[in-house]
Structures are given as C-alpha cells and as structure tokens.
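[agent] plan:
  1. take the single chain provided in the ticket
  2. run structure prediction with default settings
  3. attach structure tokens to the ticket
  4. add a short note for the reviewer (M.T.)
[agent] executing step 1
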Amino acid sequence: MNWTNLFKIAMKAIANNKLRTFLTMLGIIIGVASVITMLAIGQGSKQSIQSQISKMGSNMIMIMPGAERRGGVRMGGSDMQTLKISDYNTLKQECTYLAAISPSVSSSGQFIFGGNNYSSSISGVSQDYLTIRQLEVEDGDMFDDTDIAQSAKVCIIGKTIADNLFTNGENPVGQIIRFRSMPFTVIGVLKSKGYNTMGQDQDDVVLAPYTTVMKRILSVNYLSMIYASAINEGETEQAIDEITEILRTNHKLQDGKADNFNVRSQEELSSMMTSTTTSMTILLACVAGISLIVGGIGIMNIMYVSVTERTKEIGLRMSVGARGVDILTQFLIEAVMISITGGLIGVLFGVGAAYGVKMFAGWPIAIQPMSVILSFAVCSITGIFFGWYPAKKAANLDPIEAIRYE
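[agent] step 2 finished; step 3 output follows
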C-alpha cells in the first residue's frame, strides 16, 4: 500500500469536483461553526454571571422574612414582619462567622431636584452595606453612627441618580434632593458599577440610614431584609447555620416548627445560575451539533455518488493489482479530507462569528480551546464514520463486474 499515491489519487478526485466537494463541506462548516459559536456564547454568559455574583460579594448572605399561615391563609414573605431590629442587633453581637451585617428597608417614589425628577427607590441600610455589596464612595462620605441614631435626612446616591437629577454639571455633594416631600442632603456619590448580567442598573441606588427610612418614610418597626457577609467564602455554611440557630432562638421557635425566615447565600445563587447556564449551553451545543450529523450524511451521500461514478475506475485499479484495502483507504482518505478541511474552515468561521456576536450584539463570549478541539475531533470522526460504508462498498466490488459497469 503506497500511502503517497493513495493520497494523491484522493486529492485529485476532490479537485476534479470542486463545487460538489465544497457543497458537501458546507454542512460540516456550518455544524462546527455553530457548535463553537453556541458554546462561546454559553460559556461567556456563565463566566459573566459568575463575575457579577462575585462582584456582589461571593460570601454575601441574605436573610429574608419567611412565609407562614395566619387564620388558615398562607402569607407571602412580603407580607411578613418577622425580622426586627432586635434580630439585627442580636446577630451583630453574637455571630462569630460574620464580617459585616446590615439591615435593609426600602421604599419607591420620585426624587426631585430643581426641575428634574427621577423615579427610583431609597434603601435604608447601615455602613456595613457598602462592604457587603462591595460599593465604594467616590465623592463625599458615608453616613455614620450619629446619623443613624438621629435618623438624619442624609443620603448617598449612585451615578444614575446623579446623572438624571444633576443635569447641569452641579456637584451633587451638599445638594438637597426631595424624596416625595422629604428633603435629603446628599453627602456622597458612589463609584459606578454599571449593569450586571441580569440587566439591572447597579448605579440606580440611593442609600440612607435605615432608621430614617423606617421612621420618617415607612413608619414601620420591622425589616425587609438583613444583608450579611461571612468572614470568608469557605465559612459561609457555618455562618448560615449560626444565623439560623440564633434567629430560631430569638423567634422562640420550638423544635420541629418551620422557620419563619429564609437564609440564602450567593453560593446558592451562583450554583443555580451556573446550573441553568450549563444546561442552556448543552442544549445550544446539541442543537448546533445536529448540523454536524447533517453534514456527515452529506458526506455519505456524496461518497456513494463518487463510488457509483467511478465504478469502472475501481474495477480497472483492482484488475492491475489494487487490493480491497487500498480502495477502502482511498475513499476513506477522500471522506476524511473533506471532513477535516470543512472542520478547519468551520473553526475559523466559528471563532469569527463568536467575536462578531461580541462586537455587534455586545454579548459576553468565552471561546474554550476544548470546544474547538472537540468540534474538530467530532468532524474528523464524522468523516470516518459516514465515509466508511461507501468506501467499504467500493472495496467489495467485483473487478470484472466493475469493469463492465456503464
């Protein structure tokens, strides 16, 4: 078996039918390009979500009111008043696994400055909120314990609020804005964080002392939520267990009775989002992979046509000494060359399409070397798998019958 001659014969056969060969390659090209592009989009979304969650604080813990039954009616978490300031104070004093903790209450409405107004919400928090949510004051200062004790009408604002209220270039620090009918002095502006993966504007925020929002705006004595952060990510589970135990004691819940609060961590959110994006990536890859199967069927079809067209040639070659394995190898080389060439072109198109999506659609992408290698390997296997049967058919032809074939 002369591999060089077999390779030359296969290449000559491909060159003699350029258009047909290209159309056969097209299925492989589209399949490989689709797989690479879909995987790049899926992996990009996954990494972007993980990055955004990390920016929010990978060790962040959220404590929310739970649901319970009152008079036979199941109350939702938003209707509950189970989280109190006493819970926050107890957790702050007794939790050993927490690095920071902040209560949270909020209210929505119109913010007004001069002739400008902007609809948003105001959140009542403590100083630790900045640490938990990884926020920074870019200009001015954060409110202090005195402001919290006095329920001071002061606030710090995000860049979106500043841009919409202070349209004439005024320095927001020191200015007085109104929330509904209540004046607030802006004492600081937060450093911009932009939009997160879920499309939420992280700069559309106004923070004030939690006592101010509770007493002056909402007139309530309960909390909407408590934010906390564990000492480090590895101790998040211990922190959750400790919080649960303290709150159950605080709420006088007997053994066997369900919690009237919920404790969630960023790890749970990250795990859920990662699982979702992984499932979507696999689904996208499977859909794109169908193109590879279609391309493989195209290779089988064209190889059948090639065997039929060259039946007489095959008979002549076998009559002068070519063995069945030589014929089999020749047609396999043709199938694999079509598949590999289509795969290489598909890789280039796939990478280009992925960057095109990033450039024009603004979607995050992440091209994994493994996805390129896997796509290329699959298309090679496809060429061998779908090319083998037509090649085997050619190798099994009877030389005399093949020479007589018209």
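[agent] step 4 note for reviewer: The longest strand covers residues 98-113.
[agent] ticket updated
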